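quick one, 88 residues, struct below
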Amino acid sequence: TPTGVSHTKAGDVATLHWAPAPPSDRVTTYVIEAGSTPGTNNQGTFVAPGTATSFQRQAPGGTYYVHMFARNACGTSQPTEDVLVSIP
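---
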């Protein structure tokens, strides 16, 4: 599971940040999900490469609950806790 998940905002652009995975985890992709309520993905699902430690997206005004997973050849991790992102 990704660790150190946080976010920053600049206007209508939100950037999600996380700690790099240890090389032994061999993460191939990160899956980022945004929803209108905790634990959902009804606002979008996005993929970032396994080498990434951030993901940026422009979003319409609103409140988003964002969580993410790590994937490798063995499967998908448990989700992170939701991060609350509010765009003006």
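Strands lie at 6-10, 13-17, 29-35, 44-49, 54-58, 62-72, 75-76, 83-87.
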